[in-house]
């Protein structure tokens, strides 16, 4: 593993110090002059960047970030493991030369000046980057957004991010490729954030596996994602957070899961107000229940997210048990009794929650990777994970206490220990409910006032947003939870940018891409004229093309068609691209600059045999899969496929999923290309989806090819509308 950092040399006669790049690799140290100088007091050695947000500092930081990324690609993401000093210097000098030729400081200055009031956001579960793309497009007044960190677990997501935002747009955005459930995720995320105040966190953690019967009932890898998403919110405390999910979450288990999610969101507390609540608890304590009131305080402190607090909590309860042990059993019994040992060892297990959580995470990953579910192996994994869960350990400790013959005068002490362990697993609101039981009427009123100031976010209700209402040629309904920090204006809806009769149609989105046949690929656009073979509907379809604003609203003059916006790029109004759009196969190819630079990317049709083409032609002619069944049977070309969606040129598409074979082009008997699906999602053509085009079988569990990147993304124009509304409200 190589280490990469910058250091300052001796200052010159003007007091400016040269910045050098230093690499320690394989026991050797390489040094390289960056060609940049800075006054020592204006350089933060710890953060490895120039101080300040002015154009000069930003230009230096942009350049250093570029150089660090290239060094990281070379040393950590290439097949070669050993480099000579000359090899490293030669490759990096080529990158420096390329930077100076293609990315002058004036470009950076222009972008910095334009974004001088940029607000910072973090994109979790980023996937292809639909949220990121939309947030970067958004602007209101003199405010826009700056991407600080994006996160996902897949290499292809990272590859697409780095190509789009680091290489193509020249941004200093970071990417954290790590599972959010891993114990050190939050620590690594904070390192990437680098002390920057975050204004917005967005992301869509799956909540479908939630169950009132227990979040970990099946020990699915998705079970904890929502909870960990909220853990990030608790620590970062952004002004707003946006959580996107599927529509079905509203009705799951009769709407109770939705209520659970809202409850969890509204229970996030302002850690700055914790001293106020602690003071209240101390004011109502008395000697008879002093231990439990200490427990209330320690439970409240867990909301700070400091991992050491958990160990301290368990240690505090364990010490209580150690004090009463000689009073409830003799010395010999305390060493040999199975119940005493269960209690004692249970405390040891609970104190190692970090280690156990990592073990559980690893086991769940292996279980998922091996597709262990619905077989004779699944119960063994589930039983083991149940046995080592915190709830089960505490349950065994409780049963051990009940099995002990405890003198009457010490039964309350034992019950208090059990209560303390049960409080350890409760939510904040559940803890407060227990605390209320110790309050009189006046104390309850005082506590309610404190709780009003303690709650950090307000989330009254989720709402459904249809992507087609925001200039996206697709009926894609998503549920949005928007958390508004207590010092910010409340947002309860995202106003549509287009009316019902102004919505973008499939034809508007795709007509200029319809020039490919079976198993063909294009890297340049075809002729701009509308294809003549449109079943006699050419004139009618031409009328669908409207001049529009960037977000889709039709205008009488000065606008562009949807396809023109897609071609020209909606981000070009803010950023000056550092490179042309390009495709790379993998991370190693990116590190070695093995790339395909093309005007048009991701536009390749599938290789379908004659039978499939005939089948699709019949379905297309009938306009509906069900209506085509009799003709398909007569021609003996039926399919076991459950459904085909025939695109209607004058309407919006149905929800775009991850499998292209589910959709039939409105004019040609074929499935859609990645680029066509991206158009229906409102991605610009300059946004290139990287890696493999598609995959199948068990590979779908580990790979995220281009079609999956597109299908799983939130439409950028929808994200743009969300971001714009936040900019209108944010203080």
Q: Kindly report the CATH topology of the largest domain.
A: DNA Methylase, Chain A, domain 2
User: What is the level-2 CATH architecture name of the largest domain?
Assistant: Alpha-Beta Complex
Query: How many domain modules?
Result: 3
In percent, how much strand structure appears in the residues?
5-15%
Query: Rg to the nearest angstrom?
Result: 30 Å
Question: Could you please describe the fold and organization of this structure?
Answer:
The protein is of the alpha/beta class. It has three domains: 1-114, no CATH class; 273-455, no CATH class; 501-717, DNA Methylase, subunit A, domain 2 (DNA Methylase, Chain A, domain 2), CATH 3.90.120.10. Helix content is 43%, strand content 12%. The protein has 28 helices and 18 strands. Strands 6, 7, 8, 9, 10, 11, 12, 13 and 14 form a nine-stranded mixed β-sheet that branches. It has a three-stranded antiparallel β-sheet with strand order 1-2-3, covered by helices on one side. It has a two-stranded antiparallel sheet with strand order 4-5. Strand 2 and strand 3 form a beta hairpin. Helix 4 packs across helix 28 and helix 11 (308-328) runs antiparallel to helix 17. The chain is globular.
Give a short overview.
With 731 residues, the protein is of the alpha/beta class.
């Amino acid at each position: 593993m190589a280490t990469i950092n910058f250091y300052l040399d001796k200052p010159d006669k003007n007091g400016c110090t040269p910045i050098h790049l230093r690499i320690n690799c394989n026991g050797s140290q390489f040094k390289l002059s960056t060609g940049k100088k800075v006054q020592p007091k204006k350089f933060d050695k710890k953060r490895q960047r120039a101080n300040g947000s002015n154009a000069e500092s930003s230009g230096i930081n942009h350049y250093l970030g570029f150089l660090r990324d290239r060094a990281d690609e070379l040393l950590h993401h290439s097949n070669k493991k050993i480099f000579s000093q000359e090899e490293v210097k030669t490759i990096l000098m080529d990158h420096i030369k390329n930077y100076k030729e293609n990315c002058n400081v004036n470009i950076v200055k222009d972008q910095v000046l334009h974004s001088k009031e940029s607000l910072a956001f973090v994109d979790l579960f980023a996937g292809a980057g639909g949220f990121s793309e939309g947030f970067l497009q958004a602007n209101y007044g003199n405010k826009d957004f700056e991407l600080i960190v994006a996160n996902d677990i897949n290499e292809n997501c990272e590859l697409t991010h780095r190509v789009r935002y680091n290489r193509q747009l020249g941004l200093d955005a970071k990417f954290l490729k790590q599972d959010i459930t891993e114990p050190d995720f939050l620590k690594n995320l904070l390192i990437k954030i680098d002390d920057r105040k975050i204004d917005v966190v967005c992301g869509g953690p799956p909540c479908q596996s939630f169950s009132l019967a227990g979040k970990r009932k099946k020990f699915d890898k998705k079970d904890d994602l929502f909870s960990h998403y909220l853990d990030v919110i608790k620590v970062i405390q952004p002004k707003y957070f946006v959580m996107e999910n599927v529509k079905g979450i509203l009705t799951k288990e009769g709407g109770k899961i939705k209520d659970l999610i809202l409850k969890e969101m509204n229970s996030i507390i302002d850690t700055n107000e914790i001293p106020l609540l602690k003071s209240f608890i101390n004011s109502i304590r008395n000697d008879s229940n002093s231990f439990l009131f200490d427990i209330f305080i320690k439970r409240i402190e867990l909301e700070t997210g400091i991992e050491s607090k958990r160990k301290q909590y368990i240690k505090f309860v364990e010490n209580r048990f150690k004090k009463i042990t000689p009073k409830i059993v003799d010395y010999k019994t305390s060493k040999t009794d199975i119940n005493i040992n269960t209690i004692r060892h249970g405390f040891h297990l609970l104190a190692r929650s970090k280690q156990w959580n990592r073990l559980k995470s690893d086991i769940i990953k292996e279980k998922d990777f091996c597709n262990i579910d619905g077989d004779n192996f699944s119960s063994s994994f589930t039983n083991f994970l149940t046995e080592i869960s915190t709830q089960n350990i505490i349950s065994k400790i409780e049963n051990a206490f009940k099995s002990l013959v405890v003198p009457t005068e010490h039964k309350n002490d034992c019950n208090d220990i059990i209560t303390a362990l049960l409080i350890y697993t409760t939510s904040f609101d559940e803890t407060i409910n227990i605390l209320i039981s110790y309050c009189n009427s006046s104390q309850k009123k005082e506590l309610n006032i404190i709780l009003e100031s303690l709650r950090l976010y307000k989330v009254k209700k989720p709402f459904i947003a249809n992507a087609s209402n925001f200039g996206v040629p697709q009926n894609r309904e998503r549920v949005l939870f928007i958390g508004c920090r207590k010092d910010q204006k409340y947002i309860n809806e995202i106003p549509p940018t287009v009316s019902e009769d102004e919505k973008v149609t499939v034809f508007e989105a795709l007509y200029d891409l319809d020039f490919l046949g079976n198993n063909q690929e294009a890297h340049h656009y075809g002729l701009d004229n509308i294809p003549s073979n449109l079943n006699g509907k050419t004139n009618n379809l031409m009328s669908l093309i409207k001049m529009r604003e960037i977000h889709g609203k039709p205008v009488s003059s000065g606008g562009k068609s949807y396809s023109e916006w897609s071609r020209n790029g909606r981000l070009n109004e803010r950023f000056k691209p550092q490179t042309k759009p390009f495709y790379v196969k993998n991370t190693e190819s990116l590190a070695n600059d093995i790339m395909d630079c093309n005007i048009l990317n991701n536009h390749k049709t599938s290789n379908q045999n004659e039978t499939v083409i005939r089948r699709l032609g019949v379905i297309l002619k009938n306009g509906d899969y069900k209506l085509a069944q009799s003709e398909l049977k007569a021609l003996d070309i039926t399919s076991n496929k459950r459904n085909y969606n025939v695109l209607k040129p004058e309407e919006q598409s149905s929800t775009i999923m991850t499998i292209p074979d589910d959709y039939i082009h409105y004019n040609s008997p074929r499935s859609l290309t990645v680029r066509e699906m991206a158009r229906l999602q409102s991605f610009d053509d300059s946004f290139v989806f990287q890696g493999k085009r598609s995959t199948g079988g068990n590979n779908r569990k580990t790979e995220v090819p281009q079609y999956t990147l597109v299908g799983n993304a939130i439409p950028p124009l929808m994200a743009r509308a969300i971001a714009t509304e936040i900019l209108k409200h944010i203080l």
